[in-house]
Amino acid sequence: MLFDQFNNIPMLVKDKTLLYFPIMSPLKLFFLLLLILAVVIVTLCLLGIRTPNLAVAAGVTIAVFTGLVLLQKRRNKKKKQGHFERNGGLLLEKQLSAADGAIEKSRIFISRELEAATDGFNESRILGQGGQGTVYKGILADGRIVAIKKSKVDESLLEQFINELVIVSQVNHRNVVKLLGCCLETEVPLLVYEYIPNGTLFNLIQNDNEAESFPFTWSLRLKVATEVAGALAYLHSGLTIPVFHRDIKSTNILLDEKYIAKVSDFGASLSIAIDKTHMTTRVQGTFGYIDPEYFRSSQITDKSDVYSFGVVLLELLTRQKPIPSRGEGEDVYLGLAQRFQTSMEENSLPTILDPQIIDQTNEGEVIAVAKLAQRCIDWDGRRRPTMKEVSIELENIKMSRGGLTIQENYQSPSCTGEEAVVMIDVYDAWTIGSENVKSTSDAYAVLNNTI
């Protein structure tokens, strides 16, 4: 399992000797020195002690001050080194020295750089907040704008954060957000990413106010889908050790200044040795995007990312949320995937599509993507395509237009042969503790009753 490599990293040991002196800044120590020196001089004058002795007293005071400063520096250095080791710094240094390619371009920042870049992590610099931590907008000394991800002070999230650092540092793809470096000498690790200015795909899909200034056209939707599929195919098939993202969703897809898609947030991701077969685990992911087969069996496969990506395709096709909010319709307990499957089976696809994309000029492409999405969200993982197959099919759809019509009769996809299923080991982030839950729609009802 990936996290076995962290088992030997020494945890920060609290040194009891640090309790003997208060932690003070050099400026405070300087004023303390002046106070001590003033008290000593006044006392000696009152006692009538000769001037040479005042010089000796001043020297002693200065020596004490110097000792306190050196002691504090030593303590701070020891504390930072402890944080560095606990946050996986030794492992990362080993990788940086041994690896080639993208990882050697990453650098280790010092805390002062990032504090200055974010104006002391000022709240006005916050770009977003999530389960793992907060992302700040920063400006480095060389003028580069970056996104700095700061983990929450939570020991249970530390492994996820280090996991993200280790995985993303080895990935080099134009549609995966680029890691510029990290800082590990702070209490919680900091990751420094390229700054992506146009927010998330989720915001673009749901924000109707931008329709006039920036129309969310079908060609843009297809381009984004193709780019994300290419990134996932690369993670699954293009790396020496495959990576399963495990949390693909529209909020984890960022859009740069040219609206090029960037897959982000690898805290839940997993590297898997090629010779690994399977292992049972508890569920991790975002509700509405979780593969129902993974949900039922607790066995994660490469097809789990395919299912999640299929839900993203549905968002692009329908402009609806994976799980509707209360009051958004009669099918509040049915997820988008279930409602989409029903519309396909009942030959009523136009009723669920976003009206903006129903156009005679792109009808064939819309139908082809809808059929692909239906295969991606099949409840049987063996019948889903691989991400490589999805990527190739989307590229082909972009380059050709079919003669299909939206009223065409849709048949449930079938599997022409057994596909190899790779299963892997994961660790838990959250789980719904009910053995009687058999579907995601049932689970949603459970959540409504428990939240």
Automatic annotation (TrEMBL):
Q: Where in the cell does this protein reside?
A: Membrane
The secretion signal range is none
Give a GO cellular-component term: plasma membrane
One GO biological process term is:
cell surface receptor signaling pathway
Q: Name the SMART domains on file.
A: S_TKc
Tell me which UniProt keywords the record has, alphabetically.
ATP-binding, Kinase, Membrane, Nucleotide-binding, Serine/threonine-protein kinase, Signal, Transferase, Transmembrane, Transmembrane helix
Boundaries of every Protein kinase domain copy? 121-399
Bilayer topology term: Single-pass type I membrane protein
Q: Which InterPro entries would you find in this protein's record?
A: Kinase-like_dom_sf, Prot_kinase_dom, Ser/Thr_kinase_AS, WAK-like
Q: Where are the transmembrane segments?
A: 29-49, 55-71
Q: Which PROSITE patterns match?
A: PROTEIN_KINASE_DOM (PS50011), PROTEIN_KINASE_ST (PS00108)
State the reactions this protein catalyses.
L-threonyl-[protein] + ATP = O-phospho-L-threonyl-[protein] + ADP + H(+); L-seryl-[protein] + ATP = O-phospho-L-seryl-[protein] + ADP + H(+)
The GO molecular function terms of this record are: ATP binding; protein serine/threonine kinase activity
Q: What is this protein called?
A: Wall-associated receptor kinase-like 1
User: Which species does the entry assign this protein to?
Assistant: Coffea arabica (Arabian coffee)
